Amino acid sequence: MLNHLSHETSPYLLQHADNPVDWHPWNAETLRLALDLDKPILLSIGYSACHWCHVMAHESFEDEAVAAVMNEHFVNIKVDREERPDLDQIYQNAHYLLAQRSGGWPLTIFLEPDGTPFYSGTYFPKQARYGLPGFPDLLTRIAKVYQEKRGELSAQGKQLIATLASWQMVKSAEDAVLSAAPVAEAVQQHLKSFDPLHGGFGGAPKFLHPAELDLLLRQAHATHDGQTSHVALFTLRQMALGGLNDQLGGGFCRYSVDAHWDIPHFEKMLYDNGLLLGLYCDAWLSSNDPFFAHVVEQTAGWVMREMQSPQGGYYASLDADSEHEEGKFYVWQRNDIRDLLSADEYAVVKPYYGLDSTPNFENHSWNLRVAQPLAGIAQHLNISAEQASARLASAQTKLFAARERRIRPGRDEKILGSWNGLMIAGMAKAARTVNRADWLQSAQQAMDFVRGTLWQNGKLLATHKDGKTHLNAYLDDHAFLLNAALELLQTEYRSTDMAFAMQLADALLARFEDSENGGFFFTSHDHEALIQRNKTGQDDAIPSGNGIAAQGLLRLAELTGDVRYGEAAERCLKLFFPLIQRAAGQFSSLCTALGEAMQPPSMLVLCGAKNETAAWRAAVAAKYAPGLMIIELTGSETGLPAPLRKPRAATTTAWLCRGTQCLPPIYRLDELLAELV
């Protein structure tokens, strides 16, 4: 029999629709049921690509005896954290207060019928182990405590709600005076936590830190600091050489369980790869190292091959597991590789992927990573670099083809506005960096799908799957799609993208801004009332919505001349500035916005024939100026905002503006490049 999840669109919820647990989705009816029955709520939050979510499901949620205990004592609610990041944020915060440690997924949290949490954990095994109680025993103990100590739990709950409320950001009594000092402080904090041996920050497990790497690349350029540049580029190189990056098919996994980037948790998330596409483009432009261009090409190829729907939108994720085993799709036995390849190919592949050393994964298997430089292997084999490269490419083609015949990991095919914004931005930047029309078409198709499907009656919705679009969109949806529209405009100007950018920015100001204090709430003013309303600026695996909103609004103000956008960005920065001063490294995306706000914005408008303006832009881009917006116009555009309305000339013309000062028109490329030195 199916439970109450069978009509949901989330693949994660549908994975649990035939559990013997009487699961409900989070909605008003379920919450009212808990109140009517006077039962506590067991809230389980996870996502479809999560390995430990699957483990707990197989051990406990598919077990009739465990389900019977859950059904007797609790109203059981299952939430997809990707569809309801608002609930995930709130209850991860609550878990931190209750357990005095950070959370993760699955999040297992017990609530009073009104939604107030009183006990929490993450993964619980069916039988006691790992120092954790057995889940069935825990359930009966919690049910007993709930019945016998309601007064104590209620008092604890009121204190927890008050603590959550105290985290709300309000502006200082005195208007903050912005300065760029925290930007340099954030850079220094990242340099101190840098791992000089393996790249990245801190020890195992190692995460990707895209907002931090973006800030480092920008500041390395701005300050001509070789050490900062090395930290960013070395980290990006080590990540791409490691097992975190799918060496055969492209695409990065979510994080590495070790300090060497060898073994990931194997889920591939759309958001990581969208952010990394842009970072590897910047790494290439700042270093001229073709290795980074190869990573861009490999990642973009994976996106178009495996993550784009026929309708245009990008899917959410690929599972870590296949056939109930984490990583089974990706890892290899050495003999299987040897049997697929010629002797010459294997002679290159064996040292290249470290098959001549001990296995690095379970069951004496290998997760492929680059272990030795190809140039050294060629020298050892006494063959040319071209021969070694050709043999490696041939071997990779054979291995990829063989792997494609395996049972694939599941794919979460919901289309999220926020994550599509991150991937559209990455693909648009990659398209103009590499001059790939097919990548631009991919990004534009995704944006057209989002605009045509998620934007309804002047309001943005969060998710789409199987013909159903629903849920109020969040701050991240608006901010990330605004940033995506700006990246598309810099790749190929379309009036539809400009109009959508302004609609999104207007929605940010009208529906999310804290008009009294500044900054943007994570949920809109008309959103469901929950036990906490977040307004955060710290970066996580995804850059903060406030940071990206501030960046996007500053750039949109420059493009349109509409001062409302820049003023909202400044109010946001002033709200968070005292926090940024105290812990700059936690606010890298806001530091990036702060750095942009503290210097006059710069914009280059190129007008002329498409082939000529493209050549000019490529020459300018080769100088890597991350703070410079470049807009190409052919003269056929209509409805341009005032800063982009330039008179037509008989030849290609450049208008370069810094802040409120614009230079006279420039008609020669060498003169333009001289101005950009």
From TrEMBL:
Stretches assigned to the Spermatogenesis-associated protein 20-like TRX domain: 3-164
GO BP of this protein: carbohydrate metabolic process
Protein name per Swiss-Prot or TrEMBL: Spermatogenesis-associated protein 20-like TRX domain-containing protein
Organism: mine drainage metagenome
CDD domains, A to Z: SSP411 (cd02955)
InterPro entries found in the cross-reference section: 6-hairpin_glycosidase_sf, 6hp_glycosidase-like_sf, Ssp411, Ssp411-like_TRX, Thioredoxin-like_sf
